[in-house]
Each structure stands twice: as structure tokens, then as C-alpha cells.
Design brief:
The chain is 29% helix and 23% strand. Strand 4, helix 2 and strand 5 form a beta-alpha-beta unit. The radius of gyration is 16 Å and the shape is globular. The chain starts with a helix and ends with a strand.
């Protein structure tokens, strides 16, 4: 298992210990509810049939009210990620946990229900996460994995290239901050 996969699985397990986990912006990639005691899907698009329709930049929750939040591959689709992170911090209870991900070297991927605005370096993520008491960031992939992201998926060759690229990244090139496809971030308030 790759280091980022180990990190992600461990942190997802920590988040899943909460009585309720709010998956904010997860409509397009809903999580398996069986992993959680109670899973609440929050999304701005009602076409995904979320439990709560809400914009991450204006969450309808009281201050310090949520114990655990998932926010996976969402920040790049938000007009103002600073507002979004401020809202996540506001609604998270003291000691509460967030697991999020954000792309760095990734192709444009807007869809009919959302736009694609941003990419995030580790420095940008640290800036956005500054108010949190604990910030852990791990990069996923490397040069080769980043390149494979730009192979058109309709060719299906990307499925063959991904494991090869992952091997090259881990064995030959070693992950470099300058060319990682995405980051995973674990936060505690």
C-alpha cells in the first residue's frame, strides 16, 4: 500500500469514529455509508439527492457543532476556498476532525453541475488551514502519476498506466512536491 493510501485509510477510520460524519460537497462521489455510524451528505446540488442542500461557503450549522467532516475533491470547485475553509473551521467542534483532499497537478474537470477554479500547492493548503491546531498533509503520487492524469480517460490506457506510474514514482523518482497530483489533509480544531 502506498504511503498516502495508508494515511488516508487511517485518517478516514479516525473520522469514522464520530457519531456523525458530514460529507460536505461529496455528492458526486458519495462515500459508503456502512463505514460510518451516521453519514450525512451535504451538497450544493440537489440533483445528487444530498441529506442537506447547502453551499460550503455558507453552511447552515451552528458554530462548533460538527464532530467530523469529509471534504474530498471539493475546494477546487468553490469560488472562494478561503470562505469555505473559514466555514469548515466555524462549524467544527473543538477537537473535531476533517479529512480533505485537493488537487495540485490535475487536468481541468468541470462538469455540468460545478465549475473548476483552483489548484493547491502544499503551501496554499497550509495557508488555508492555518487556524487549525493540527495540520497533517501528505502528497499522493509523483511526476509519473501527474502525467498519467492528463491521458484521456476515454482511451482506457490510463488504467494500464496508473500502476506503472505509481511504481516509477515510488521506486525511481520519489515523490517531489513540485509534481504531485493531489494532497490529502487531516485537520483537528
Amino acid at each position: 500500500m502506498k504511503p498516502w493510501e495508508t494515511f488516508f485509510n487511517k485518517k478516514l477510520s479516525e473520522v469514522a469514529e464520530a457519531a456523525e460524519v458530514y460529507d460536505i460537497g461529496g455528492g458526486a462521489q458519495r462515500q459508503d455509508k456502512r463505514k460510518f455510524k451516521k453519514y450525512v451528505l451535504v451538497d450544493v446540488n440537489d440533483r445528487y439527492h444530498p441529506d442537506i442542500v447547502a453551499d460550503i461557503q455558507h453552511l447552515p450549522f451552528a458554530d462548533d457543532s460538527l464532530e467530523a467532516i469529509l471534504c474530498l475533491s471539493v475546494l477546487e470547485h468553490v469560488e472562494n476556498p478561503f470562505f469555505a475553509m473559514k466555514e469548515l473551521y466555524r462549524v467544527l467542534s473543538p477537537g473535531g476532525k476533517i479529512l480533505l483532499s485537493a488537487p495540485f497537478v490535475w487536468p481541468y474537470h468541470a462538469a455540468p453541475l460545478y465549475k473548476d477554479y483552483w489548484r493547491f500547492s502544499e503551501d496554499a493548503l497550509r495557508l488555508l488551514c492555518r487556524p487549525f491546531s493540527l495540520v497533517e498533509i501528505i502528497s499522493a503520487g509523483g511526476y509519473c502519476s501527474a502525467l498519467v492524469n492528463f491521458v484521456p480517460s476515454f482511451t482506457r490506457i490510463d488504467r494500464i498506466l496508473r500502476p506503472i506510474a505509481a511504481w516509477f514514482d515510488a521506486s525511481i523518482f520519489r515523490t517531489r512536491k513540485s509534481a504531485v497530483p493531489e494532497y490529502f489533509v487531516f485537520l483537528v480544531k
